[in-house]
Amino acid sequence: MNILVIGSGGREHALAWQCAKDSNVKTVYVAPGNAGTALEPKCQNVVLKPSSSEVGEHSAVIDFCQNNAIDMVIVGPEAPLVTGIIDACRNAGIKAWGPTAYCSQLEGSKTFAKEFMAQNNIPTAAYQGFTDAPAAKAYVDEQGAPIVIKADGLAAGKGVIVAENIEQAHAAIDDMLADNKFGDAGSRVVIEQFLKGEEASFICMIDGENILPMATSQDHKRAFEGDLGPNTGGMGAYSPAPVVTQDVNDKVIEKVIQPVVDAMKEAGHPYTGFLYAGLMIDEAGDPYVIEFNCRFGDPETQPILMRLQSSMVDLVEQGLKGQLPTEAKWDSRPALGIVVASKGYPETSSKGDAISGLPELEADTAVKVFHAGTAFANDDAVDSEKEVVTNGGRVLCITALADSISDAQQAALAVTGAISFDGAQYRRDIGHHAIARENG
Ligand code: AMP
Ligand code: GLY
């Protein structure tokens, strides 16, 4: 069979690599992909452009699927999900895995997500939405700091400011509502209570009815070691996350995931695809939702899929039929991924810097270098002579499987340390919460 993966990040490299491992798969096309997906056996990058500007936004995907005998589309990022790529594919009779535009509002609009959680008693931080800066500031003054200011709508993980004091909160409100001084409802902020605890990512596959939890994981959102610096899309992740004990796992299903499945079904929009709940787990082990994402996490996908022993293709096929199993097979060893970002990330990013020290493909099956923002400087050369260069903020995610999280961290660091490019930055402390637990 042939598969089309949409996206170009580390998540999509990991998804494509997993799918390519299935012996029933002939070709995994990745649109647009990166240098890593181009070099991956059985994988091929494609650029999809609509045939004319008159046709719908997703027509290029539909045309490609119809012309290339695509059996299944797996959508990585949120943007095409929010604009209805799944609805468009289904209408054209193409099998596509992901949530519909309606369901993707859980990620696409923080206001929708917050109202949905309130209506369905899903635990989350208290909040209020504002379009007016003075009113937002008055609310902050009344609530006190720390407090969290979020831009409504998609902001690639950068639209969130955890303000330590009132001045920072006011500045964030001015930034986000600056274009909205005259009450244009297009710009809106959500102001949230600050939640204390340890974060975890809880990702599952849902087929409208059945829930298949993926292995648990934890991301590191801040740019610098010690969880300091600005929020990023994620600087590294590992799986499993020891903070998610069996008891916490059961609470998450009961209080968070099942209510989403039930409410979406009730609303006439059954949830299908990956669902990601970003959680804060408090001291009592109770989960609070920080955010929903309508997709797999990046970089959580990389360590999670390193551990997946079931076929992703089989799981998606079963999901598309409404026959998801309740468990998948996992490697019992933990996996940990370190993101190497380019100079200036997350504020800016650089392109075109040569990357050296990348290991040979498949030299070591316990370590995998997933590419994200990479491209070739010389696209026309034969594979062995292609030069890989940076092409975005998060460049690589070096992911290792080992007997403990600290061993996985060391194995990933050893490979990461051998790779270099101008301005490369990464954290050496990915997994620190779990390693502290391992060390008692
Ligand atoms: P989000 O984009 O909503 O996931 O927020 C990005 C990051 O900001 C989260 O991963 C948390 O580290 C932090 N954050 C967001 N909301 C809260 C909150 N209500 N309390 C504490 N931290 C938060
Ligand atoms: N790692 C968090 C995300 O995918 O947004």
Q: What would your notes on this structure say?
A:
The protein is of the alpha+beta class and 440 residues long. It contains 14 helices and 23 strands. The chain has helices at 10-20, 35-39, 59-67, 78-82, 85-91, 101-108, 110-119, 133-143, 166-177, 246-266, 301-307, 312-320, 405-418, 432-438; strands spanning 2-7, 27-32, 43-45, 72-75, 96-97, 127-130, 147-151, 160-163, 189-193, 198-207, 211-213, 218-219, 222-224, 228-231, 236-239, 272-281, 287-293, 335-341, 351-354, 367-371, 374-376, 388-391, 394-401. A 5-stranded parallel beta sheet has the order 3-2-1-4-5. The protein has a 5-stranded antiparallel beta sheet with strand order 12-15-18-23-20. Helix 6 (101-108) packs across helix 7. Bound molecules: adenosine monophosphate and glycine.
Please provide a brief summary of the model:
This protein has 440 residues and is α+β, with helices and mostly antiparallel strands.
Keywords:
binds glycine, five-stranded parallel beta sheet
How do the strands of the widest beta sheet line up side by side?
Answer: 3-2-1-4-5
Radius of gyration, Cα only, in angstroms?
21 Å
* CA(first)-CA(last) distance: 48 Å
The main β sheet shows up as: 5 strands, parallel
Task: Catalogue the ligands.
Answer: adenosine monophosphate, glycine
Helix content: 25-40%
Give the integer mean of the pLDDT values: 93
Q: How many helical stretches?
A: 14
